[in-house]
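With this grant's support, we have paired protein sequences with backbone structure tokens. One protein thus recorded is set out beneath this paragraph:

_____
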Amino acid sequence: MTVPTHLVRPEIRAERAYRVPTTIEADAKVDQNESPYDLPDEIKRAALDAFAATPWNRYPDDRPHRLIEAIEKKEGLPAGSVIVGRGSNELSHTLGLCFLEADTPVVLPSPMFALYASVARMHGAKIVDVAAGPDLRHDPDEILSAARRSGAPLTIVTTPNNPTGQTIEHAELERIAEGIPGVLVIDEAYHEFLDGPTATDLVMSHPNVLVMRTFSKAFGLAGVRLGVLMGQPEMIQEIEKSRLPFLVGRLGEAIGLEILARPELVADRVAELKAERESLEAWLSDLEGVEVLPGAANFFLVRTPLDHTELRAAMAERGVLIRDVTGYPALAPTDDRPGWLRVSIGSPDENRITRDAFAAILGLEVAAS
């Protein structure tokens, strides 16, 4: 009997599954924008003790209410303003379910985290692309124009943007929110690395603004899967209707509460990562033939005279994993320029190993220190 895959919706069959290579042991794993730091043992023990004290044979709350309340208090938002999901990826699918159907226009600047476009295609939505300029920044006026022209009920922007690390100024975000006909989702997965106001300032003053956050980056909880969506309570109440209960268990909630209670730990780690990023960017920028696109998060883009595939393989041979981002057309090689690679910021030891690998591959006479 033939497997009836033809019964799967054509929008799904047309997609490729989102796969990430299984974690590989490396001297410097700087390919996934993760925090290089695990949580201290005392925080792990506190979370595990809290989890062990709960009944495992009973369902958790349908929503992680204690964690939600802690986030609302931290952000100065009223009750009912926050959804906590199993990572921001799960919340991206929730947004698609809530706002998109066949032929619905959705404004997606590019390049941008590829999952958003995948979700849109799976719902049969019509992607309204807004290409970045030569500097790989997104023009707020072009985003506004695309939203108005298409009448899109959903516009998504990311700042700092993955994979480029570029930002949209706070005032420009407000201008977009005020000028578009639909909902503006602002993905702030890397907001802890920015100075100044964050998009949560816009949530209560703009009823069409939703803000996405994650515990995976600055908080160092990529393996726990916690994402956050913030908006005005009336909108959040509607979005909640589309979500399954019990998506976040008691252990995830306990871990989230423990890290939120230690803002100084996160702040210290962010400060170190920013300093390390600036140092590595500056070192690479001084090398002949090397071009660096400085980022505002915990990563940056780089290209060298070498073919991107050759460079990535050579780095891997030296124990350094970096990310090939040439699948984004704007970052692909051209006739006269190689493609871009993305380098995350690791621990000081990982960053030293990364410098040494670049030095060896590019034939520098003096090894990086």
